[in-house]
Amino acid sequence: MKKAEQIRVIKGLMAHLDADTNVDAGGQMRNPVESYTCAERAQREWQEFFQGYPQLLGLSVDLPEPGSFFTSEDLGKPILCTRDKEGQFRAFLNVCRHRGTVVEHERRGKKHLFSCPFHAWGYSAGGELIAVPKEAHFGQVDKSCHNLVALPAVERHGLLWVSAQPDGHFDIDDLLGELGPELAEWQLQDAEHKWETTYSTEMNWKLAIDTFGETYHFGALHKDTLAPVLYGNCQMYDTYNRNHRMVLCNRSIDLLRDLPQQQWHVLKAGLPVYYIFPNVQLIMGQGGPTMVRVYPRGANPHRSYSAITFYTHNGMQAAAWPVDTSEQTSGVQALDRAQGFASVIEAEDYWAAASSHKGALSGAQEYVLFGRNEPALHHYHNTYRQALQLPQLALET
Ligand code: FES
Ligand SMILES: [Fe+2]
Q1: For the domain that residue 76 is a member of, what is the CATH number?
Q2: Do residues 90 and 212 both lie within one domain?
Q3: What ligand 1 atom has the least distance to the C-alpha of 101?
Q4: What is the CATH number of the domain that holds 342?
Q5: Which residue range(s) make up the domain with 283?
Q6: Residues 234 and 322 reside in one and the same domain
Q7: N or C, which terminus of the chain has less Cβ within 10 Å?
């Protein structure tokens, strides 16, 4: 985030604190409960968002060197992401061209030969079929026609994007708009992968996204966990095409009031949370970024899971307050903080969201209400509705 923007955001947070105000969408919105329970809607979302729209699967540092790989089944099909010998990010359907077995079963690692467990056909990190055992017995194989099926893959601003469709195409710069240069400023390519976990929940995937869309709930749901370090019901909010950025307010913002603005940094004052359409939260913590990717279980509207990955980042640690002197100590502290934060997501946010799903199924009401202090929910729901050519939710002033 550029310095001038950081100062604007920090001043905005201070002004909200001083005046006891928050961002204001100008009115409320009613969101039909069927948005979370409708099977036909879930089917469209799965096709349009998770099959047809480019998906952020990781950070560049998930593939630190040639031969690095990770696998994913988040998009409903086996996918192998690699860095080839030229250092280029590649993605493939992780499917052997002999009899269709999944080739690579490890979650992540480094290999230069991906050997199918069934008959040991082997593929390079660039997807080329390079080994067919006993070819004289099997019969000759035109290797050039039996490479792994490539998927469109783009690396930009330290982020890795994939389309689940081999013939898909996308313009990531166009989709990110002004958010692209801002993400570049974080220098995510300097992060380091530390830890990952998955939470499966009986709720619609959008209820998981909704928990990240406001801080109105901090004083109640997080009163013993996050509220001691973050001011609830105080944030700055900006949109970038289909994406948005919330900056939550750290209580340590008060330490900046007596410091010259050159010494201000947004990580000392706040917690920037980027929502990247349709399903990713990228949270810029003091120790490093945390990526939360939320997925429905296919077209099932009642089940979802979140893949949470935590990275350390020395530059972000150095910018934050207080600065730890021991790199090792700060890395451990950062990991502790990230795991604590992730456990809050599971035990509090997702607990409440799963409870909302039960409420949605109960027939108690036809809609849920989004307040004027919850603009991210307004934007997110109307954005996704627009993407599905559904009528917009009205702002009720
Ligand atoms: S299915 Fe992969 S080698 Fe036979
Ligand atoms: Fe929360």
Answers
A1: 2.102.10.10
A2: no
A3: 1
A4: 3.90.380.10
A5: 3-52+178-387
A6: yes
A7: C
Tell me, in angstroms, the distance from the centre of ligand 1 to residue 90's CA.
21
Per-residue pLDDT tens for 83-117?
999 999 999 999 999 999 999 999 999 999 999 99
Instruction: Classify residue 306: in a domain, yes or no.
Output: yes
Q: Is the CB of 96 under 6 A from ligand 1?
A: yes
**Residues 194, 342 within the same domain:** yes
Cα separations (Å) of 131 from 134, 138, 246? 9, 12, 50
The distance of Cα 143 from the centroid of its chain, to the nearest Å, equals 37
* Ligand 1 in reach of 146 Cβ (< 6 A): no
284-330 pLDDT, tens digit each: 998 899 999 999 999 999 999 999 999 999 999 888 865 444 554 56
Distance from the alpha carbon of residue 318 to the mean position of ligand 2, in angstroms? 26
- Please tell me the distance between residue 217's alpha carbon and the centre of ligand 2 in angstroms: 7
CA distance 169 to 161: 11
What separation in Å is there between the alpha carbon of 214 and the centre of ligand 2?
Answer: 8
Q: Which ligand is nearest to the CA of 122?
A: 1
Pocket test for ligand 1, best of 102, 116, 149 (most atoms within 8 A of CB): 116
In a domain, 237, yes or no: yes
98 lines ligand 1 (CB under 6 A): yes
Which CB contacts under 8 angstroms, 24+ apart, belong to 141-146? 146/97, 146/98
Q: Which residues contact 5 (CB under 8 A, 6 or more apart)?
A: 182
Domains in the chain: how many in total? 2
Cα angle: 323, vertex 329, 332; to 5 degrees:
110
pLDDT reported for residue 19: 98
